Amino acid sequence: MNQLAVYHAKATFFCVGENAMHHPQITAELQKQGHQLGNHTHNHLKGWQCSTAEYLKNVLLAEKHLPGKLFRPPYGRITTTQGKKLRENGFHIVMWSILSCDYDPKLNPQKSLRQLKQLSKPGSIVVFHDSEKAFQNLKNILPEYLRFLSEEGYNMVTL
Q1: Which of these, 70, 47, 69, lies nearest to 58 by C-alpha position?
Q2: In the 3-class helix/strand/coil scheme, how is 35-83 assigned residue by residue?
Q3: What is the mean pLDDT of each run of 10 residues along the chain (159 residues)?
Q4: What is the pLDDT of residue 67?
Q5: Is 110 in a helix, a strand, or coil?
Q6: Phi and psi at residue 141, in whole multiples of 5°?
Q7: Under CATH, which number does the domain 10-95 receive?
Q8: Which helix (H) or strand (E) covers residue 26, if one does?
Q9: CA pair distance 45, 128, nearest whole angstrom
């Protein structure tokens, strides 16, 4: 989070509702800094493994802790019916154009950074994760990637 502030970047963070519920000070600070929050279900629910009713209930539970109607499904996967129901409930489903794969413990950070730089273009939506599993890769890749974007003249904005 501090690295983002250094570059005066604004970002959209898709948060798990349960994390937002347990750490309201972090979500409040993100919003205070001008970042946008999006819904990522209440507990990172796999949509393809549950009913549409269960999935929608989980998303609506997360909405109690996350303002707005942006939604990104965990793993980038939901059923067609779930997507339809979310849209009927006013959600805008956001996917990504570049996945950093920072969650992979076998990831080569230099190779990942090289690919991120090659694939980045105006309008790119890039996914990084804030999990303990991703932390080591995140801290190795994100500062240099943000520096690259800044040097290339990119403006990082919310959705």
Answers
A1: 47
A2: CEEEECCCCCCCHHHCCHHHHHHHHHHHHCCCCCCEECCHHHCCCHHHH
A3: 46 92 94 93 95 97 94 95 98 95 93 96 91 89 93 87
A4: 85
A5: helix
A6: -105, -45
A7: 3.20.20.370
A8: helix 24-32
A9: 18
